[in-house]
């Protein structure tokens, strides 16, 4: 690579200014920068070729998960240095560095396993390097740096995954794509401020607008700053990661994801789709990344679908999160992905996928299948979400959901969002927030060891009242019994059970119930008291700390 460095538009003026300053200082006067003078020129835009030009110093450092995240870790970065010298150093995170030197033998040096020059349209090559740290201890904090043995990055910390399930958080973004350098950074930074201990970041495609734009990839890395260097990144390709049907030349050098995806039967297809379809098991969650850009290629799509079913059917993890770009239920006007919906939707429901995280539509939508609705606020099936993190916006509609058997529980447009997802042994809490940190919406997914599940809207004063109690009949004999069911409680929550006379507004306490581990009260027999006279109209009223809900009206027969 040439050693010639491009100079900014003020190169000669700066040199002249420096000479004038030296002369003034020599004469005992205070130097004034030339730019302050009356003859200063108006500012001009820094040329694209200078903004993100590589140097010997490493940049664009990003953590990429392996198939064994408890004991190994991949790191990629960029520089202008060839692979002969590219290397990384790692040690268990010390309490101090600098004047405090690591103990003898504590630092391990690992040479880069691959180096990939990526030609750009800006007149230089970006050289990407990859290191894999192996033999690591589970759930252990490490410190690493990358470089060429002379020019190093800063020391950076990350923590390996636990060997077994442990609670953790991750962040999910929809499309960034546009306004990456101006509107994007505040979203990434606010998300990190809200979940600084997140272990994973999920990007649902369209990270950039132009697949092979050196400038845009530079903007994307700069927008996330140091965050990608210490949190594992799980990204999938959107349509804007392709140009002319070809995958971005930046993708595979940046994201060397596990090569555990489907075998398409020929080397060319396998090579073209490498690192775009994969799975990672992380602390009790199976993350599955799919490539929805191939949905029009029937043989490739069929092979991917068969692989997906295998990943779902042979999943030892309690929780499953799937991410891809084109939504099962589109939110934007005029969009539809029937092949994705027909081939993948039934598998998500059959195998109990918990979250499906998507992009593409530059709007926000979240919901579940209509058949899984249990009450106004509760479903028991997969949660489908589509979001947008960047500044490009489309109009939102609900028709693609309602026309295809799904409830759109939340919809929004003209909003930049990030999603925080907290995983515990018994629940996943999903919350979407705006770029300014304010709450938009969310759900709590609970699942027991039998695989039964509830998906409950995060409570509001509006959704914790009203007619939400299900009954097995709307007519009952005098002093007869009605079976009632209700959802949306905290596990173990106490519920007082009343029979209320609709005409008189009188309540009679007839019992007490306790919500089960999924927040349900199921098939609870409620015997009507003698005060519920014949031909009267009654409701069952359930009162707890969190909800005050009623049944449909019930008529007492003669």
TrEMBL record:
It comes from Jiangella rhizosphaerae. Keywords: Signal. PANTHER family: ACID PHOSPHATASE RELATED, PURPLE ACID PHOSPHATASE. The keyword Signal applies. The lineage of its organism: Bacteria, Bacillati, Actinomycetota, Actinomycetes, Jiangellales. It holds the Pfam family Metallophos. Residues 186-364 form the Calcineurin-like phosphoesterase domain. Residues 58-160 form the Purple acid phosphatase N-terminal domain. One of its GO terms (molecular function) is metal ion binding. This is Metallophosphoesterase family protein. It comes from the Bacteria. The keyword Translocase does not apply.
């Amino acid at each position: 690579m040439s050693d010639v460095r491009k100079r900014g538009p003020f190169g000669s003026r700066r040199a002249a200014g420096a000479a004038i300053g030296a002369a003034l200082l020599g004469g005992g006067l205070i130097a004034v920068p030339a730019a302050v003078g009356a003859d200063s020129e108006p500012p001009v835009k820094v040329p694209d070729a200078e903004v993100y030009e590589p140097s010997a110093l490493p940049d664009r450092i990003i953590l990429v998960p392996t198939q064994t995240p408890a004991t190994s870790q991949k790191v990629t970065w960029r520089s202008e240095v060839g692979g002969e010298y590219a290397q990384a150093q790692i040690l268990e995170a010390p309490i101090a560095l600098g004047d405090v030197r690591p103990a003898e033998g504590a630092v391990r040096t690992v040479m880069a396993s691959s180096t990939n020059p990526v030609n750009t349209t800006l007149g230089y090559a970006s050289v990407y390097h990859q290191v894999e740290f192996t033999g690591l201890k589970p759930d252990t904090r490490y410190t690493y740096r990358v470089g060429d043995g002379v020019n190093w990055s800063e020391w950076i910390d990350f923590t390996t995954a636990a060997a077994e399930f442990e609670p953790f958080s991750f962040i999910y973004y929809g499309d960034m794509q546009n306004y990456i350098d101006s509107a994007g950074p505040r979203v990434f930074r606010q998300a990190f401020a809200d979940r600084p201990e997140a272990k994973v970041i999920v990007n649902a495609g369209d990270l950039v607008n132009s697949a092979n734009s050196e400038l845009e990839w530079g903007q994307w890395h700069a927008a996330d700053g140091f965050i990608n260097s210490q949190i594992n990144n799980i990204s999938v390709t959107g349509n804007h990661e392709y140009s002319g049907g070809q995958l971005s030349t930046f993708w595979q050098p940046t994201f060397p994801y596990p090569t555990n995806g489907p075998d398409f039967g020929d080397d060319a297809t396998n090579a073209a789709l490498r690192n775009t379809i994969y799975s990672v098991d992380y602390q009790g969650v199976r993350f599955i990344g799919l490539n929805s850009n191939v949905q029009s290629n029937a043989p490739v799509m069929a092979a991917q679908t068969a692989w997906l079913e295998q990943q779902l059917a042979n999943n030892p993890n309690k929780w499953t999160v799937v991410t891809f770009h084109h939504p099962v239920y589109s939110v934007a006007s005029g969009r539809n992905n029937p092949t994705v919906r027909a081939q993948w939707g039934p598998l998500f429901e059959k195998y109990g996928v918990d979250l499906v995280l998507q992009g593409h539509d530059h709007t926000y939508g979240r919901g579940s299948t209509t058949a899984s609705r249990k009450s106004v606020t509760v479903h028991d099936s997969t949660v489908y979400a589509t979001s947008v993190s960047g500044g490009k916006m489309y109009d939102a509609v609900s028709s693609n959901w309602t026309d295809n058997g799904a409830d759109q529980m939340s919809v929004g447009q003209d909003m930049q969002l990030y999603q925080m997802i907290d995983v515990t042994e018994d629940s996943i809490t999903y919350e979407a927030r705006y770029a300014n940190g304010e709450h938009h919406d969310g759900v709590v997914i609970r699942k027991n060891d039998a695989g039964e599940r509830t998906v409950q809207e995060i409570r509001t004063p509006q959704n914790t009242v009203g007619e939400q109690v299900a009954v097995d009949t709307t007519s009952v004999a005098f002093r007869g019994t009605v079976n009632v069911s209700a959802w949306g409680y905290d596990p173990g929550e106490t519920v007082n059970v009343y029979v209320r006379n609709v005409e008189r507004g009188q309540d009679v306490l007839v019992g007490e119930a306790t919500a089960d581990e999924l927040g349900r009260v199921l098939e609870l027999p409620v015997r009507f008291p003698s005060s519920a006279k014949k031909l009267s109209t009654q409701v069952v009223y359930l009162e707890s700390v969190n909800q005050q809900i009623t049944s449909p009206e019930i008529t007492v027969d003669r």
